[in-house]
């Protein structure tokens, strides 16, 4: 077993002890990330089961996201205060209990509430997993660590829709949550046996005021942004009041953090040029790629007429492409810097997304799958190298807060991207006198569906609406090249503080 305080081995390969730890971390992360995509295919089932609108059941996903955003800022401090292994196991228990509670939900309100409990546990699993992995692997192997941690990000989008559709078809919606019980039990037992023990090391007092400002601020801001697709306009009081109050709290936190010696999130990290460039690049990339990525299954289902399970299978090439390039990118980024790798990945994403700007109702499926494969290859060269670029120049003391900062950026950018692309698509459909429901019913026979003579026109107009939405994402991907050109294009030498040379990296 690798001691949490032992230096990483000299070899740049991940040894057996580290790989054992990685298996535990990946299992927990897969469970958390898979749960997001599994639920995405059950929204229609929830609407029928609880006799409520699609907009209401969509909050089963939004509530989970808001819980993630709320808990991430305090994870770094809590890991120091209570110990990383102990907190990781607590997060697993919370997630599993939340999953069981979700399966027992009696109405949509209780389900949304239990999703919050699930999100509080799930939100800690990925940052804590990064902490555990980087402590075991050491600073010279950050790229490879990121490649390993990228596995759940690949398997979630591939396996989630397929698993969710299959469980709902052969069992019931309850099993998309109950499946976490045996997986969680295995992960908990493995964590207890394999993860290295570490003692709590509270190095600073908890920034309570910072938590009161930032966590509710993020939750309210993301609540407002996430409400835009449902209400259909930014000018809604629900959007403006929630996002406005959240923004005020976040701004207040900024002023507080710049004055406090040990803030919840250290904004002075932005003085590090490389981290700042990585944050800007990551934000633009996630808004475009993740926002558009959620629309691909909708296109296959609504315009292509595929089932949910088929749409999940059609998305698999994207994950397979990323699975091919991510391990290679992880090895290369440790040797030649993130800039060259990211600037290789972005053109691939641009090409793949460009294909989707030209979609039609009769576009060949093989062509769209090939475009997704190319985009996946680009994603494998982009996401984890950006994370590596952000943290590799930070000292051990800074890395904990730097990783927390990057997690918040990813969560916020993802929510903004989802809202932006959803609003663009909705407006594109309205400009063509269509709604999402009308497009979805185009494949149904009369009298439920439209007149057969209008089906081709509806699907053609819907395809144009999706194509224009993907064009917005393509433009944002192109803009990502600007900050990406300032990323390092050679191996970065890590600045080590005095007395810090043998200490392992920590990330939260």
TrEMBL record:
Matches recorded under InterPro entries: EmrB-like, MFS, MFS_dom, MFS_trans_sf
Domain Major facilitator superfamily (MFS) profile residues, every copy: 21-492
Keyword ATP-binding in record: no
Source organism: Rhodococcus globerulus
NCBIfam families: efflux_EmrB
Pfam families attached to this UniProt entry: MFS_1
Keyword Calcium assigned: no
Protein name: DHA2 family efflux MFS transporter permease subunit
Segments passing through the bilayer: 21-47, 53-75, 87-106, 112-133, 145-168, 174-196, 208-229, 235-255, 275-299, 311-329, 341-360, 366-392, 404-425, 465-487
Keywords: Cell membrane, Membrane, Transmembrane, Transmembrane helix, Transport
Family named by the database record: Belongs to the major facilitator superfamily. EmrB family.
Origin organism lineage: Bacteria, Bacillati, Actinomycetota, Actinomycetes, Mycobacteriales
Subcellular location(s) per record: Cell membrane
Protein's membrane topology: Multi-pass membrane protein
Source taxon at top rank: Bacteria
């Amino acid at each position: 077993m690798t001691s949490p305080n032992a230096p990483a081995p000299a070899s740049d390969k991940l040894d057996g002890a580290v790989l054992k730890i990685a298996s535990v971390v990946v299992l927990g992360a897969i469970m958390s990330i898979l749960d997001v995509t599994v639920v995405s295919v059950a929204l229609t089932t929830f609407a029928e089961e609880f006799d409520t609108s699609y907009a209401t059941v969509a909050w089963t996903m939004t509530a989970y996201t808001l819980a993630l955003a709320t808990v991430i800022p305090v994870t770094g401090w809590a890991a120091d205060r209570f110990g990383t292994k102990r907190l990781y196991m607590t997060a697993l228990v919370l997630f599993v209990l939340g999953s069981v509670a979700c399966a027992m939900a009696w109405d949509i309100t209780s389900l949304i509430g239990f999703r919050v409990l699930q999100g509080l546990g799930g939100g800690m699993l990925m940052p804590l997993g990064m902490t555990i992995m980087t402590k075991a692997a050491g600073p010279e192997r950050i790229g490879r660590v990121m490649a390993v941690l990228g596995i759940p990000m690949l398997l979630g989008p591939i396996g989630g829709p397929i698993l969710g559709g299959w469980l709902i078809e052969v069992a019931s919606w309850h099993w998309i949550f109950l499946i976490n019980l045996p997986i969680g039990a295995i992960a908990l037992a493995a964590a207890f046996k394999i993860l290295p023990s570490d003692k709590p090391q509270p190095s600073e007092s908890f920034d309570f005021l910072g938590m009161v400002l930032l966590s509710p601020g993020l939750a309210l801001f993301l609540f407002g942004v996430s409400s835009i697709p449902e209400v259909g306009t930014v000018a809604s009081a629900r959007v403006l009041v929630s996002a406005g109050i959240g923004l005020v709290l976040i701004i207040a936190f900024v002023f507080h953090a710049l004055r406090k010696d040990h803030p919840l999130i250290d904004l002075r990290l932005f003085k590090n040029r490389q981290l700042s460039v990585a944050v800007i690049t990551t934000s633009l990339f996630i808004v475009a790629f993740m926002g558009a990525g959620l629309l691909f299954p909708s296109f296959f289902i609504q315009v292509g007429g595929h089932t949910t399970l088929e749409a999940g299978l059609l998305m698999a090439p994207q994950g397979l492409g990323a699975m091919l390039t991510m391990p290679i990118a992880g090895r290369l980024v440790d040797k030649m810097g993130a800039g060259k790798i990211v600037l290789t990945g972005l053109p691939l994403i641009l090409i793949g997304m460009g294909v989707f700007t030209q979609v039609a109702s009769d576009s060949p499926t093989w062509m769209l799958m090939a475009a997704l494969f190319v985009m996946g290859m680009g994603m494998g060269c982009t996401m984890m190298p950006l994370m590596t670029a952000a943290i590799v120049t930070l000292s051990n003391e800074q890395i904990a807060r730097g990783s927390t900062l990057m997690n918040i950026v990813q969560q916020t950018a993802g929510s903004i991207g989802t809202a932006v692309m959803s609003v663009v698509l909705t407006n594109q459909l309205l400009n063509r006198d269509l709604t999402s429901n009308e497009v979805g019913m185009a494949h149904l026979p009369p009298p439920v569906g439209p007149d057969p003579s209008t089906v081709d026109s509806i699907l053609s107009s819907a395809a144009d609406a999706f194509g224009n939405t993907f064009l917005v994402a393509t433009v944002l991907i192109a803009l990502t090249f600007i900050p990406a050109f300032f990323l390092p294009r050679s191996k970065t030498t890590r600045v080590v503080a005095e007395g810090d040379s043998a200490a392992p990296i920590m990330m939260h």
